[in-house]
User: Fold this.
Amino acid sequence: MKRELGILLLISLGVSILAWAINPDRLPLKADFASYELGVNFDLVNAADAVQLLNDNAVVLVDIRSGEPEIRLPGAFPVRQESFDNDFRDLFDFILPEDKLLLVGNGDLMSISSIAERISERGYKNLVLMRGDISAWEHAGGEVRK
Amino acid sequence: MRNLKLPDYIELLLRLMIGGTFIYASISKIFHPDAFALSIFHYRLVPAALLHPFAIYLPYLEFFAGAALIAGKYIKGASLLVSLMVLMFIGAISSALFRDIDISCGCFGTEGGHAIGLQLLFRDFILLAGSIALLFSKISSRQRL
Assistant:
């Protein structure tokens, strides 16, 4: 029985390591407890998946970084914390409640989830939040303008 | 207990039911490890360093234990594994109930988000009884589908 148990444990371990190694971004080994503690109720995606979503025209890109960032995301709608109502009014003309919005920020999950909550309260609940910052986006092949 | 003699059809039925349940439970978790990690986090029993490795490994353990039971291969080892996993689930659910945490069980990954409760414990105890019966069954290791 010990041998059988060992074989099953090892097969499972081997296959799980292999599956993880094929796509490590799907769930990094190190848990980001901040996102769990925040109780983020929205889909979190890594930069590669976020770029793919945009390339598939599956999302409307929303840049939630505050101020006037040097590196810009072409085609993104800015929705900033400090000017949320005005920014959201501009975005409002271009989206429907069922549209999927991809929120990209500076990697701070607290600020991105805060914006996501505010957007969600206005009836736009189909939100996807990108983990990581603009450098992760750029590194994943996402288009930027400097 | 070691000489427990189950009729062949009972043993086959137990293997198919328990194995099928475990395979079904594992599929969604394998494809959505992030959602499963969130379910595990809600129990607040697993430390941060182990949360994601656990969420990645456990579904495969469930899958291969279930597959072994259905295939009739390594039945004793698979039964022991299933029994230990179910004991762990019972412990986790009991702990959450004791602490009055209102969460979804995460038993079937993103599918079937049952709230934890006594009915879940009852279901797990049935699974445990079945897997223990297979574990101590005298004929199990010779049976194949």
